[in-house]
Amino acid sequence: MMSDLGTARGRGDGCNIAHENYAREVLELFTSGVDNGYDQNDITIMSRAWTGWTINLVDPANAANPFITNYVFNASSTVVSNLPGIWSFSYMASNHNNSAKTIFPSKFVPARFGFPWAGTAYQLVLPIRSSLNGGVNVGTNGMADGYDVIAHLAKQPFAMEFISVKLCRLFVHDDFVHGVYDYTSPNLSPEAKLVHDCMLAWENATPKGNLRTVMRTIFNSDLFRSHGAAAQKVKTPLEFMASTIRALRSVDANGFATADTDGNFATALNRMGSMLLFDRAEPNGYPETAPGWVSAGTLAERLRFVQSVLMSSNLTQSIDPGTGFMSDPVRLLKRKLPSNQWDVASNVVDLFLFYLYPGEGRANLEVYKTVAMNFLNTADDGVTSSAFSGLGNTSGNYDSRVRGMVAMLLTLPRFQEQ
Fold this sequence. Notes:
Mean pLDDT: 86
Number of helices: 16
Order of helices and strands: HHHEEEEEEHHHHHHEHHHEHHHH
Shape: elongated
Largest sheet: 2 strands, antiparallel
Structural class: mainly alpha
Helix content: 25-40%
């Protein structure tokens, strides 16, 4: 997006559709939310504050200098470059609109925000940025327009609410919304009250907007600390993959791990929800809420991933070509349990419940334990009784029975939660 800002020139004021899109994204995706305190005119005027902002390929020594002019490669060119260098922020003064700009004219904070924000004007006036020298625009003062806009937005209750809601969704649960709470109501929900407390922490921090105080407010809240707040978030595909390998991984003195990966996450991440690391098509980041990751198809792909991880190493590639995951749960249990417990189903189940659900109360896992023990003591047909203690802990049947039980535990609802 930044490279677009410094290239196309579609209007006489130096602005173009890319600048307007950028301004809309700043408001809609990162500071205020959708249709919250601004209109199309504000977007149009605000977009002029970022004219002249772009990126260019520069020598590493100039990576921190936005005013450098001797580029290795100019982003305004349509030619693709493979020259060595660093893509860095660059300010092109000759492309900036230096005129005065009034954003949010005659707008006031809505009454729902209450004290100390309700009714206050939030108009922003950017002055003329004179930078002409002999008729040539060579100054750099205009770059301050963009920074002034960001600083102004960060002080508005719209941004305080929007960011606070995002943080509460991340650390507490999904059921927080922005743009609807009436903070003057005597009957605020616990979620609305926590968001309001976060906004006050933002407002009263020194300096204003210090996110440490906002985070402290969340972490000290009843919503965060209560028992009911646990297990309210669904793991993203990356979190699901990482937690699976981590839970089954033990490294011995020789460096041999009981679970490992070659780092080839792309295929599995794409299947479990199109989570392409550092390559999301939309500029709003991956969702924190469950609907973005949970569907019949994505859950089936989580099963497929677990199957590939728990499959015997010589079969993994055939079941899921292109992946490099492996695990050896039998080796793990033999490292962690004394030998006289290797054939005891309850001890084996307790061990894996401990590693897969750390910190979970024993009573919460009784149902899982019963299901897992029934699995260990049942033949592959799912019906015939087959005592785990009689399999022999060096046999192939023992290995496959343990792998199947662990795979089942990894696909149960509790493991899908953060």
